[in-house]
Structure formats: C-alpha cells, structure tokens
Write a structure and sequence with these properties.
- The protein is of the alpha/beta class.
- The protein has 13 helices and 14 strands.
- The chain has two domains: 160 residues, Rossmann fold (3-Layer(aba) Sandwich), CATH 3.40.50; 177 residues, Alpha-Beta Complex (Argininosuccinate synthetase, chain A, domain 2).
- Helix 7 crosses helix 8.
- The longest helix is centred in the last third of the chain and has 20 residues.
Length: 406
C-alpha cells in the first residue's frame, strides 16, 4: 500500500482515523471532503487536515452534481423508503463515493478509508460504490478492525494525541448535513421514547413558533424536473436552496422515525428535509394530473424499488441503471405548475395545472352525464364481476362462513 485517501469531515471519527491510519500503515494520507451543501468552513477543515498530518486535503464541490444527478433522479421516481424517509443521506453517499474514487485515482492512492461504523448503512453504500467504480482500490474500514469500542474511546484517543474536536462529550449525537437535509442519530436519540430536544434542530422553525399566517408557493416542472419557483427560473441548486429557506421558516420537513437498516438493525433517526418535502409533494401532484392511470400505478412500484436500491447502496448497480432508464420516459409529459400552502409544519396542495393534463372536469363532473355513456358501466361491472360470481357459486360454504362473521 502506497497511499490512502480518507473520506474526511474533521469530526470526531475521521479526525482520529487520520492519525490512526498514519500510525498503523505509515503511508501518506490524502484527506477528501465533499461539499454537498453542508455549509461548513472548508478552509478550517482543510487547515485541520493538514495540521493533523494529511499530505493533501481535497475540497470537492459536488453541490450541482448532487442535485442534478441524484436528488432530481430520486424526485422523478418519487422514491421514499419505508413510507417516510426521503433518502437525504442515502442519495449523497454515491455522489461522494464517485468523487472519492476520482480523487483517489488522480492522487495515486491504492486504498480508500472511511469512518462508517460496522453497524450502519453508509459502510455498505460507500464500499458497494467503490466495488462498482474501481474494484482495484482496497477499502479500509477502521471501525471494523481497530480496538476502539465507542466514541468515548475516541475522545480519550483524541485527547492523548491533542486532536481538536468540534463536539463535546455532552452533545455526542451524530449529525450529517447536505443541501437536501440534516440527519440526527445516536446518543440520546437512541432512546426511541425520548422526544428530541428543541435546541437540536438547526434548520427548521418549531412549527408552534412558525408564522401565524400561511404562505403559498408555486413550483413549476418541465419533464419531471423543477425549473422555477413563483414564476422565476433558477438553476437546480438555487431551487433547492430557495425552497429550503421557505419551508424551514414554516417548520416544514421534520421527520422522526425508526427505520430498518440494510444489515437488519433498526435505527432511530430524526431528519429535517424542508425544501425537498415541498418538491416531493409538488411532483406527486403534477404526476397525478399528467400520468396515465396504469403508468402511475406502475411508477409506484418502481419508486419503491428505486428507494430500496438507493437506501441499500446499489446506485451504480446494473439493475438501478435499468430502473432509471424505465422511469425517465414516464417524465416526458410531467410538466406544469403546482401551488402549495405552507402553515405551521404542514403542506397543502391548493392548485395544479398542466398543458398535458389528463383531467377533464367535463368528463368527470356528476353534473354532466352526456360526455360519458353511463350505460357502459353496467357491462363493465358485469364482466369484472363474472369471476367473483363464479367463485361464489362454487364455494357456498366458504361464502356462508364469511357472511356469518360479517
């Protein structure tokens, strides 16, 4: 082994890992930090990495790539994991991993190291990405090999090696931020009955303290992609930033859930996903107006599969490429505008329109029967009910048992 690239944040884990790698392997370390919109002081991160012993520190601006290639793809799929989780961390991992691989090859590294624990999802996401993109690179996962058993051990190690840390023992829960969300887990949050402390939330206003007047926002889509807010065109990063600020002001986007990690462990996570919550609601709404019934129902199945693949780390898998290719054509007609009303943590759809709309008030109205032959409905019901009548006649005893319990 000649050189190692370390996924570096400057936090407790990776600060200790950088020193530990130098002690253990005795080779140069390249610190890699991806800017996916977490609003860090990257000058300070860069300086700390070099001061801690890194040969070089790469600060990689991936914000645009993250939104355009990953966030927008998930939005088009309506990808939600286990009903609630909008995949903010899971979507950032393949983006960061691709950047790591490029930087490792550019700097002549033959190994990549990360600070993921042996119990989490991120170890799987990073390592499956590396195996897909550059299988020749070795992966080092210190949490699976070193002697330390927890973060208390790391605090002691950091103190012994004079490593400055941004967190204290009094606030040990883990945070991960990007342009899409902030996640909180570990520490006091491991008690699933405990309500998260109000001061923990860094982004969104407490819904109880949000403005007392609702606010509306209009989001425009072109072929499934957000292109404008309140009638003004913006680039991808700007759209998410603008909606983040607006939704956060009204306390929108907080989620507290227990999810199933890929390796089988249940984990409690608290998330703030303000702007993307608006985008998901708006995208689902414009699809309800423009997608054919069977296409829409098929997309529900594809979206669930998409979410599972993202969560489990298979972004670069062949099946994901097939899935993305299948979803893309469904978005060609998904253009139009959706108007949302925000009020004290809630999001309500109050209007939608599209030049590609399949909705017709003339056809659906109960006040106008001339546009639809209602007599055809009887035959439709008879044909679809034929198999039910046949089964009922052949299974009288079962039918009677069901009726007796009704």
């Amino acid at each position: 082994m000649k050189k190692i690239l370390l996924a570096y944040s400057g936090g407790l884990d990776t600060s200790c890992i950088l020193t530990w790698l130098k002690e253990t392997y005795g080779v140069p370390i390249v610190a890699y930090c991806a800017d996916v919109g977490q609003n860090e002081d990257f000058d300070k991160v860069h300086a700390k990495a070099l001061a801690t012993g890194a040969e070089a520190c790469v600060i990689d601006d991936l914000k645009s790539a993250f939104v355009k290639e990953y966030v927008w793809s998930a939005l088009k799929a309506n990808a939600i994991y286990e009903f609630d989780y909008l995949l903010g961390t899971a979507l950032a991992r393949p983006c960061i991993a691709a950047g790591m691989v490029k930087a490792a090859l550019l700097h002549g590294c033959d190994a990549i190291a990360h600070g993921c624990t042996g119990k989490g999802n991120d170890q799987v996401r990073f390592e499956l990405a590396v195996k897909s993109l550059a299988p020749s690179l070795e992966v080092i996962a210190p949490w699976r090999t070193w002697k330390f058993q927890g973060r208390q051990d790391l605090f002691e190690y950091a103190e012994a090696h004079s490593i400055p840390l941004p967190i204290t023992k009094d606030k040990p829960y883990s945070m991960d931020a990007n342009l899409m969300h902030i996640s909180y887990e570990g520490g006091i949050l491991e008690d699933a009955w405990l309500e998260p402390p109000a001061e923990m939330f860094l982004w969104t206003t407490d819904p109880l303290l949000a403005p007392n007047e609702p606010e509306t926002v209009t989001i425009e889509f072109a072929s499934g992609t957000p292109v404008a807010v309140n009638g003004t065109k913006y680039d991808a990063v700007q759209i998410l930033q603008i909606l983040n600020e607006l939704a956060a002001k009204h306390g929108v986007g907080r989620i507290d859930l227990v999810e199933n990690r890929y390796i089988g462990i249940k984990s409690r996570g608290v998330y703030e996903t303000p702007g993307y919550t608006l985008l998901m609601k708006a995208h689902q709404t414009i699809e309800s107006l423009t997608l054919d019934k069977e296409t829409a129902h098929l997309k529900q199945e594809l979206g669930a599969k998409f979410a599972t693949l993202v969560y489990n780390g298979y972004w670069f898998s062949p099946e994901m490429q097939v899935l993305k290719a299948g979803i893309e054509p469904t978005q060609l007609c998904v253009s139009g505008e959706v108007r949302l009303k925000l009020f004290k943590g809630s999001v309500q759809v109050v209007g939608r329109k599209s030049a590609n709309s399949l909705y017709s008030s003339h056809v659906s109205s109960f006040e106008n029967m001339s546009s639809f032959s209602t007599a055809d409905s009887g035959g439709f019901i008879n044909i679809n009910g034929l198999r039910l009548s046949t089964w009922s006649k052949a299974n009288g005893s079962i039918k009677e048992s069901v009726l007796a319990k009704a």
